[in-house]
Amino acid sequence: MKDRLPRKLAAILYADVAVYSRLTGEDEDTTHRTLREYLDVISSTVDSHHGKVMHYAGDAVLAIFGIEMATFIVSPLLEG
Predict the structure, then answer these.
(1) What's the domain range around 63?
(2) pTM over 0.85
(3) Which residue among 9, 64, 65, 77 is least crowded, i.e. fewest CB within 10 A of its CB?
């Protein structure tokens, strides 16, 4: 059998701005300025929780967190 890729428990975050297109159409400059602020906050928050931003795409961000954060997120769901 071929070698398998290593696996790990992780939590994935994908977030984007609701109604971004409409907001951009209404006030492009303010929306883009606010988006830059939003992405800065998301990036620093991900970093402070030992995560890593994997990708930005327009108004969206994709981040991954290691086992500690994944366990923190999943534990209450398993208990419920």
Answers:
(1) 11-79
(2) no
(3) 77
